[in-house]
Amino acid sequence: MKITRAKTLFSGVATLIVVATLVGCKGHQNPLSKAAPKEAASFLVQASVAAEKQLKVFRAPGGYQYGRCMSGHTATFRCLSLYKAMAVYAKTSPAFKAVTQRDLMDKTMFKQLKEDYQREQFNNI
N- to C-terminal Cα distance for the chain? Predict the structure, then answer.
């Protein structure tokens, strides 16, 4: 009888955790996906430049590290530092202050913005 109650209690708690997680995920939408592509790409280049300068990996004209990280061309530990610094920079931008490190790491979003991001990089030269 005790085992049955424990299983029931465990199942109830597990279900509650799953539901809470799903509800929590629905509440946040990636601001980069909601913005106009040109605006989001411009922000990403600016945020990458700021993060590169903070991390002392900046090379003029800058803005390349984020694209390299999202394309898998840079060491993961360096990318995590870059994403974190970019998320801090986002707090200074009214339109993107809700951007999180997880938003910046969203590969689907980056695929949608990649051409705009590259165009912004080119325009930054």
Answer: 72
The predicted model scores a pTM of 0.75
Those residues whose C-beta lies under 8 Å from the C-beta of residue 82, and which sit 6 or more positions away, are 48, 51, 52, 55, 65, 66, 69, 74
Question: What is the rounded distance in angstroms from the CA atom of residue 109 to the CA atom of residue 114?
Answer: 9
Residue 46 and residue 49: Cα distance in Å, rounded?
A: 5
- pLDDT tens for residues 49-97? 999 999 999 999 899 999 999 998 877 779 999 999 999 999 999 999 9
CB 87 within 8 A of CB 99: yes
- Tokens representing residue 20 in the block: 């809470």
Whether 18 shows a pLDDT value over 50: the answer reads no
- What is the rounded CA–CA span in Å between residue 119 and residue 115? 6
